[in-house]
Amino acid sequence: MICKYRDAKNRLRYAVVEFKSKSSKISSKPTADGRQCSNSWVMGQNAKRVQEALKSPSEVSLFMTAWENKEVEKILVRSFVSAKGVQSSVKLLNPAGYVIRNSTWSPAVSAINGQLNRAKIVNGFLTQAATLTTANDAINKTSENYSMK
To answer: Is residue 35 in a domain?
Structure first.
């Protein structure tokens, strides 16, 4: 998903967001464009994923400018059930698509955690549909979002 939002200084920003449950991982098998969530994967095939997600040529142009200026963040949202209830971890991803240790993406953390606390738990496990729906709902409240395949 591509998330468009305004930062604390009201500047337009973008993030490429990947949602996973606690046990799911970013694919370790490289695609034709490289590892999932890597820079080469995001921009692969002449930015086909970006164009399909954003659709509007003007939005694509704004995203491409932000990308060239290194103003696009890539984040991984991982949701899980703990003794405290449903929680999430929001981490930044490096250019190769790997988690940057001890990182977090502050615009989404509190909104996502609040939404996930109301997620559906089945037999003690957070359902993947609930993970995607609640995390997506949380991000939707603070940004515009575009699906990315």
So the answer is: yes
Tokens 């103003």 found at = 71
Q: Mapping DSSP to helix (H, G, I), strand (E, B) and coil, where does residue 5 land?
A: strand
In whole angstroms, give the CA distance from residue 112 to residue 51: 26
- Tell me the pLDDT tens digit for each residue of 78-98: 877 777 776 777 888 999 999
What is the spatial distance between Cα 82 and Cα 96, in angstroms, rounded to a whole number? 29
Q: Could you tell me if residue 42 is inside a domain?
A: yes
**Alpha-carbon distance values, 87 to 7, 113, 123, 134 (Å):** 23, 6, 16, 11
**Token code pair at residue 30:** 């490289």
Q: What are the CB-based long-range contacts (under 8 Å, 24+) for 68-74?
A: 71/13, 71/14, 72/13, 72/14, 72/15, 72/16, 73/13, 73/14, 73/15, 73/16, 73/105, 74/15, 74/16, 74/17, 74/18, 74/37, 74/39, 74/42
The pTM score is 0.71
Q: Is residue 55 within 8 Å of 47, Cβ to Cβ?
A: no
- For residue 26, tell me if it sits in a domain: yes
